[in-house]
Fold each of these.
Amino acid sequence: MAKNWWKILSVMLLLYVIIGGFMVPVPVIGNNQQAARSIFFHLPMWMAMYTLLTISVVNSIWYLATNDLRRDVRASSAGSVGVLFGVMGFLTGMLWATYTWGGTIVNDPKQMTTAIALAIYMAYLVLRMSFTDIDKRPAYRRSITFSRSPSSSPDLHHPRTVDSLHPGSASSPGFSDKDTAGTIKMVLWPAFIGFTLLGIWIYTLRNRYKRLALKNIIHG
């Protein structure tokens, strides 16, 4: 029980977020209306993605330095789970855009660059799966490691000064200024922690599974 406290915390926080996300009052900003509640799920998924991609690139560098296959397994596990959360973040953003911008996919720089970045990450996962020879992975890892760093993550290269339809950009009002009662922060900050812990939880499960698969390959 003592080792699993963070898993229990994750479940409790996510239950709080799910209930609070649909119950707390949210400020009406423009035509957002109740669609603003998607922020409780959309942004935390990006936070979980950034955390997992950071774990992935750190273990990738560690693998290059030590040639320890366990680090390779951790890197690939964290990367795949990070992409999963990135896709979910993108899908929740598309749902919000449908009711707020009037279209699922619109000509917004952040949305378009996010779609391109996720496509590159998924191509990386497919390419990695094509390498069945463990001995060929080091050369491949050297060429791909730094392209998967959080600095190349979706949405990171578009600061608030860039003209975008996204709230908080140069031409769109943000939520924080209108959240005078603090109800959004009451749910959003626990959501950041809860979804990040959930992502790490899934990562540890996938890492255990892939390590067992690796043992079977090595020992036959």
Amino acid sequence: MTQQSSPSSAPTPALPSLWKSLPSGARKGALACAALYGAVLMVGMLAVALGDPNPSSPALAAAQAPTTGRDLATVRHGARVQVSSYHPRGQHHAIFAIDGLSKPSDRLEKWTSAPDDPNPWIEVQLAGTADVERIELALAGVKEHVRYTMDRYSVVCFSEAGDEVHRAQFKDNTAAVAKHALPCPGTQRVRVTFGTTPKGTPKAVARLYEVVLIGKPQSAEARP
């Protein structure tokens, strides 16, 4: 004879009590994640509503820029991002690519281009002019099957005046996190353009979890 356990009569803690029981660091992290996700949803809905052909992230106040070789391509350091398109169905907005989380918690936290975009690109606009030394691209392989990892792309650095500083082509990439030296002094923005494959194939859309630009700003403080 099977004995069934009776449901527990212990009261469920109220949400305010659970919140207060969390360490202060965990509460701050949760609030920061909620604010970022809210910003992503807001920008995504506005882009869809207004029909923006190249949606971009909002301008946020920049914190103190790093003075050594660190990641300049983050919202925290005043970076902005613009893309050729993004996949609205999954809310995969490009701001995820500059949130500073190189190891995302799930597959939602990435930029994915629109299915009808034949030459998807993402451009990171730095808070100020910087000497960029290296680029790192966290591609689909960090959270998904390797067959979705983009293998062909170009990287172009531009000065504040819009002049091309450096251009590089990469093909046959197999790394989930691709790392490339990038000799780009006096750079204000960096654009990555991906080569896609026909519809219905794994690389028909670009998938990018994070862009990292290692370098040093030419000014002591980043501009807002």
Amino acid sequence: MIVSIKLFVLIYMLLIFPQTDNSRTLLYKVQEKYNTINDFTSDFIQSTGDGNINRGKFFYKADNKFRIEVKSRIIVSDGESTWTFTPQNNQVVISSSDDDLNSFSIRDYLYEYPKQCTVSTYENEDGSNTIILKPQTTDLEFKEIRLVINTNNLIQQIELYDLMNNNYKVALENTKLNQKIDDKLFTFEIPEGTRVIDLR
């Protein structure tokens, strides 16, 4: 009987622990892929659990620079400050990138959050994989993040569940790598007459 229990425990450990190792292995492969990427552009579709959908263009450059363009607003970050411009209100809000809720940090998703999360994975029917991040600390303001990784080890979808269990999803399409994007795209020149709210 004791032998049977030990055998069961051994089999259990062999099944469970390689899964964790494989999850981290996939994460490392994705990190290595993004280490080779200086910049990229993508079309994106953002959807929420209540049915709201936004389509736009996403630009990203190493050192956490990004630009998001949708019909209703433009969000630009140079890695330190973030500008959120709403043409309809003729208003721009400037904030520190670390504090801004609109920030879209690839670095956080791939490098910072995993340090404070359990990491697991599963394979999807189309050959892509999903990395699941679940916080081990109350410092992070989400319940779960799911990163769908395509066969080229690129993020094709980010799904986030916040602390209120609201669901947000961003799908990236037509991704083009290393386009030599000019740094000027990641700074925002405030149009004359625009109302400025500086929260830095």
Amino acid sequence: MRPSNLSWTLALALVVGPGGPARAREPAPLSLTVHMAEPGAAPEWLAAQVAWANRLMAPAGVAVEVTSTRPLPARHARLMTRADRDALARLRRRGTIDVFIVDHLEDVDEPGRARMGVHWRLRRDRQRRYVILSKTATPTVLAHELGHYFGNGHTDVVDNVMSYARSDPERMHFDEVQSGRIRRAARALVRAGTVRPVTRRPGPQRPAASGAAVGGAAASGGGGGGAASTGTTP
């Protein structure tokens, strides 16, 4: 059962807070393409996933932004096997991090157990990879799977994003080594053209009113907010 819209609104409010998203700096966000099975997850659910990921990756100077949402064919809504996960590779898009949101994500190592997320590498070509989230995923699962996407493994440290041991959402973090790895991996992906940053185009400058001094900034363009797995979220 999917959490109520109210619960996801509260989760989003927790991470955004009264002053807006917590950011150590304002990086150019990397493009996310979301492929979503119908009926889609609540907008508040997706917004909370992205907001938490950006808050937790802020010390690394890395952010993400949903630039496209695409329907996921019904045959991919329930992923039960490794072959089911591999089948998503043909839907990947160029220049973006693909995130597939499904109704059910089966644990391929422990059948009968559902997973909330996984960073998956195509078994025959491990350079082709993507994130899969279940619609039941809690708000920080995208951050955890992006941690894998950018090269981090699991840890036993309580409240580390890459750990399963949690005590307080407000204490969740990537450590300095993990943040450095995220930063270097993101830069390498951008240099290789594997993932593109979201570019902003300034809007047209309004002419100055008669008799007024010429100046002011142009309005900025807007934007929408074997096992091949390298990490899963239970």
